[in-house]
UniProtKB/TrEMBL annotation:
Annotated ranges, domain FAD-binding: 2-350
UniProtKB keywords: FAD, Flavoprotein, Oxidoreductase
PANTHER family noted in UniProt: MONOOXYGENASE (PTHR46865:SF2), OXIDOREDUCTASE-RELATED (PTHR46865)
Sample GO molecular function, one term: oxidoreductase activity
Pfam families, per database record: FAD_binding_3
Name of the protein in its database record: FAD-binding domain-containing protein
Amino acid sequence: MRVLISGAGIAGPSLAWFLAKTGARVTIVEKSPALFPHGQNVDIQGSARKVIKKMGLMDQVLRFNTTEKGTQLIDPNGRPFAPFPVREGSDASPTSQYEILRGDLAAILYEATKNHPNVTYLFDTTVQKVISNDDNVVTVELSNGEVQDSDLLVAADGQWSKVRKQCFPPESINVVDIGANVVYWTIPRIPTDNDWWNVYQALGSRVITLRPDPHNTIRATFTAMPSTEAQKKAWMDAARGGRQLQEELLKKEFADAGWQTQRLLDSMGQADDYYFQIVQQIKMSKWSSSRVVCLGDAGYAPTPFTGMGTSLAITGAYVLAGELSKLDPGEHPSKALDAYESKFRPFVEETQKIPSFFPAFVHPGTAWKRWLSQTLISAMSKVVANPWLANKLHSSNDDDFVLPQYSSFDDGADGEPRL
C-alpha cells in the first residue's frame, strides 16, 4: 500500500510508524523546511500511553519530561496556593508524569521513523492540489511540482487542514467556538521561576500561566474569554490580522492583569515560537471520503481544555493503521476507514464533551466569581492531598479507550513490538 501523509507533527509520524511495520510505503510531506521544534506542553493520557509503550518509546518520552512538579494557583502577589502535586499512578493533578513538550515528542517520533526503509520525509513540501480521488487511486500535485499517485491520502495537517478543505464539503465540517482565545510563547528563565505550572486567574476572564521545561526556559500562556461583542470582534480580527495586530491587542487587553503580566508582554515580541489561537473544536460528519481520511486535529480537534489532542492523535493513528493492516492486498481502503471511524468515533465524541460551565469557571470575570472558583479549587486541593482519597478519586486510567488488538503490531506475548 502506498500512503501519502500530510503533516509531520504527532499524528502523521505515529501512523507512519505502525504502517511501516505492515509493509506499507509511506511518504510524509511537511510544509516546514525542517522538523518544527516549537510547541507547548502536551500530555500523553490513557490508552495513548499503551500505544507509546507498544512503539517502544516510553523511555524517551519520560527522558524528556518537562520536569513539572505539579499545578498550583497564584495570587496577585505571586504567592502560591491550592497545590496539585504529581503523584505516580494518579491523575489527580492537571500535571502528568507523562508531560512533554510537543516539539520534543515530535522529534522522538521523527527519529523513530526517519531511517525506516518504508518511510520517506519531504520537508518544505505540501499537497498543493488533490487532482482526483476515486475507486482506483488518489492523485495529488505536490508543491514541488511532482504528481504522485497513492492508495491512501491522510490529512494529518492540523486543525485547519488544507487537505481536508479540498476533499470535504464545508457542510460536513462543524467548527465549534468555545469562546476562548489562547496565546503561547517561550520566555527566558530567571532565578525566581520554579518547576510548577503556576496559574494566575486575573479578573476580566483572563488567565496567565507559566510552566517549566527541560530546556531551561519557561513556557508562557495568556488565555482570555471575551465578554462583549466588541471584544469578540477584536480578538477575531486580530486572529486574521497577523502578529503585530495581535500583540497590540494583548498589550491592551492584559495591561492591568497583574502578577507577571509586564514580564510576559515585554518578552512577547522576541519570541520565535509565538502562537495565537482561537479555541475551537473540529467535528466532522464523516472522517473519510473514498481514499482520503482525516486523523488527529484535522478530523477531531478537541481543544486544549480537554488536554487530549495529542492522545487522540496517537491512539487514532494506532487504530487507523490497525484497520488498514487487516485489508487484503489491493482491497479498497474504505472498509478500513469505516472500521477506524466506527471504533474510534464514540471515544472521540465523548472526549470532546466539555462541560458548558468549565471555561467560564476557570476564567472568572468578577472578584466574587474568582473567589468562588478559587475556594472550590482549594477544597479540591485539600481532598487530593490525602493519598488514599486521591487514588480512589483519580486513579490513573490507561483504559479510557480499550485498544483493539492487531496481529501486525503484537509480536510477543507481552504485546511489545519486536523491531
